[in-house]
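Why run this: before we spend reagent on co-expression, it is cheaper to look at a predicted model of the complex and decide which construct boundaries make sense. The entries below are exactly what would go into the expression plan.
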Amino acid sequence: EVQLVETGGSLVQPGKSLKLTCATSGFTFSNAWMHWVRQSPEKQLEWVAQIKAKSNNYATYYAESVKGRFTISRDDSKSSVYLQMNSLKEEDTAIYYCNWAWDYWGQGVMVTVSS
Amino acid sequence: DIQMTQSPASLSASLGETVTIECRASEDIYNGLAWYQQKPGKSPQLLIYNANSLHTGVPSRFSGSGSGTQYSLKINSLQSEDVASYFCQQYYDYPYTFGAGTKLELK
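The model came back. Tokens follow.
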């Protein structure tokens, strides 16, 4: 059974950093292209970032709204994908989902950026 | 960026009715389109991919169609369990973008 479990969500002040983790199981993670997608309090979905597999040189892609502030990475030995979020803004407040193949989604983790 | 304009924003329909949700892309996305269903407090669930391919396990009353810049999701014979929000998404080009969603309620 495919599972994706996000952790690391929290209440954080603007300008601070936070790192999300998505631990996966049930599929060949090393071959998987992984995404982070977020959903704002207004329910709008926004694709955040993607990381491809080793065979694709771990290529990464980002939404313009997070480019330069967020970094997606992976550890194939742990079947996990990460999202390092720096210089957080109030508009980054959202539920963050980990996703594989658009088919499998984690349960989501809440990130609240507020002073 | 490719903009996805989804309509209507909300929809009220009766059980057994057929409903259609539209999505218009700001440029040709060559069928690189998915439809998702999301129920309150849950993650989105894939319904349709490549514009018209039904995802495994999705009831056949759901169907997708369209090409170029115009796409639609049709739900035949609406069931109570179909009450949810629906989103389109283009994955033809980066950055991948979603429509604003359609909230489907029972009349």
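The interface with chain B takes residues 43-47, 50, 61-64, 97, 102-103, 105-108 of chain A (CB under 8 Å). The radius of gyration of chain A is 13 Å. Bring this page to Monday's planning discussion.
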